[in-house]
Design brief:
Shape: globular
Number of domains: 2
Number of helices: 19
Structural class: mainly alpha
Distance between the termini: 27 Å
Number of strands: 0
CATH superfamily of the largest domain: MFS general substrate transporter like domains
Largest sheet: none
CATH topology of the largest domain: Growth Hormone, Chain: A
């Protein structure tokens, strides 16, 4: 495997270290900083909204600025903003620090994925993206699972925000020393560009259909991830610790799912690989909805988490497949913008379904969305 790919993938792992920590620490923040429920909600919402807004301009920037510069910027933003969070003594400093920390993700993702699609061969996209996503899942799992240990240190939760920046900032050295190919286009390529790199230039019928299909899939995933622990505690009467543990195991299974998704995408092609993953999600949710046995519930949920994680690899490959080479930064930013928008709106929609019919109906809703996206996927023309 190319050295450049390892550098990008490990950068992804480090960028995802803080993906789940601020949500896990919400009760701690509320107690230590005497926060209201509204302020706690702002801690969860404001960073995500700012990250969403940054996605589109970062996609435009990814097609014009060298990937190495943006990868380096993302690591510096993450490390320095984590240090700011570690010193937060009020809710405003905390929100600013967490928002900057969250912004480092789109600063990385668009140029990172765009660079991978450029310096790897077409037939290796699925394998490369599988490794990329697996290390991202590993980073999120390590960040979340290390939190209870770091909280035992003298500085408590702040330890996570001033110890992890040490390896994060140190990683700037390998980024600087590695010649990441597939950077900004050459002058010759720029002169051959027929249309400007913007949103409309990549919104072909095929890509628009893919985004619609992807939005339906994201509605299903967002509904399950948001209300799964609520269903386990409120519907099945499991303890909060048990429900959180079951939910958290999904991150570890996601590493294996990502690698498998890359393998299947390479062997079967993106459409067949994604179809298999969608059908796997649909089938496992059918089984999950029909059981009340704890053992069988754990097994079926982990199967679902496996297929859920494997969806991202063929999805990322299809973005590269459906967008021109010199506009993939915009393509990926549109992809992530769609994900963020649907992910932000879906919980409110699913909450209405739950309020009307009951908690169990998160499963029929998600199954319907998965089935619809599976059917639409078959009609996307692939050039």
């Amino acid at each position: 495997m190319k050295r450049e790919l390892w550098v990008v993938c490990i950068t992804h792992m480090l960028i995802e270290l803080y993906l789940l920590t601020h949500l896990a620490l919400l009760p701690v923040f509320m107690e230590e900083l005497q926060l209201t429920l509204f302020q706690a909600a702002m801690i969860a919402t404001v960073p995500s909204l700012l990250s969403l807004l940054v996605n589109v301009p970062m996609g435009l920037l990814a097609d014009r600025v060298r990937a190495k510069i943006l990868l380096l910027s993302s690591i510096l933003i993450e490390g320095l903003s984590a240090l700011l969070v570690s010193q937060a003594s009020d809710v405003y400093t905390l929100i600013v620090g967490l928002s900057l920390l969250r912004i480092s993700i789109p600063v990385y993702h668009n140029p990172g994925l765009s660079a991978i699609s450029r310096f790897t061969e077409r037939r290796q996209w699925s394998q490369a993206l599988g490794m990329h996503n697996a290390l991202g899942s590993l980073g999120a799992a390590v960040g979340a699972l290390s939190l209870p240990i770091l909280m035992l240190l003298p500085f408590g939760w702040r330890s996570a925000y001033f110890l992890w920046p040490i390896p994060v900032l140190a990683w700037t050295i390998p980024i600087i020393k590695t010649g990441i190919s597939g950077d900004a286009e050459t002058e010759e390529e720029e002169s051959q560009r027929e249309t400007p790199s913007n949103f409309l230039s990549i919104l072909t019928p095929a890509f628009a259909t893919f985004l619609f299909m992807f939005g339906l899939r994201e509605m299903a995933i967002a509904g399950i991830s948001t209300f799964m622990t609520t269903y386990l505690t409120g519907g099945l009467k499991l303890s909060r610790i048990t429900a959180t543990l079951i939910f958290g195991l999904g991150s570890l299974v996601g590493v294996v799912g990502s690698l498998s998704g890359g393998y299947l995408g390479e062997k079967m092609g993106e459409r067949k690989g994604m179809t298999l993953a969608l059908l796997g999600c649909l089938t496992s949710l059918l089984l999950l909805a029909s059981t009340s046995s704890l053992e069988w519930l754990v097994v079926t949920y982990l199967i679902y988490a496996f297929f859920d994680s494997s969806l991202w690899i063929p999805g990322g490959s299809l973005v590269a497949h459906l967008t021109p080479r010199d506009r993939r930064g915009v393509g990926y930013s549109t992809y992530f913008f769609t994900q963020g928008t649907v992910g932000a709106l879906s919980p409110a929609i699913v909450a209405q379904v739950i309020g009307t019919y009951g908690l169990w109906y998160i499963f029929p809703f998600a199954i319907l969305m998965f089935a619809s996206s599976t059917i639409i996927l078959q009609f996307i023309p692939l050039r």
